[in-house]
Design a protein that fits this description.
Strand content: over 45%
Number of strands: 8
Helix content: under 10%
Distance between the termini: 13 Å
Number of helices: 0
Structural class: mainly beta
Strand order of the largest sheet: 1-3-6-5-4-8
Length: 79
């Protein structure tokens, strides 16, 4: 995973947080997920509409349950 970005960097309680990243898998990326802390994994969507390449740009939205600053700690790619 490279280029993990979130915006905005600070959110009010309940406001969404946008995420983008680049995922890579030698056999091709078949999916992607992100989570904050020990929270549940949430699906990321391929920026081009299809998971079909060894390197994929992905995007998603995390619904924040509390206000403050957030940084996703993990992303993972499915192969």
């Amino acid at each position: 995973m490279t280029d993990l970005r979130t915006w905005p960097g600070s959110v009010a309680g309940g406001a969404p947080l946008s995420v983008s990243a680049t995922l890579a898998a030698e056999d091709g990326v078949a999916g992607g997920e992100v989570r904050v802390g020990d929270g549940a994994w949430m699906a990321l969507a391929p920026a081009d509409g299809t998971f079909d390449a060894p390197v994929e740009a992905v995007t998603g939205t995390i619904a924040a349950t509390t206000g403050g600053r957030f940084a996703p700690c993990c992303t993972r790619a499915a192969t």
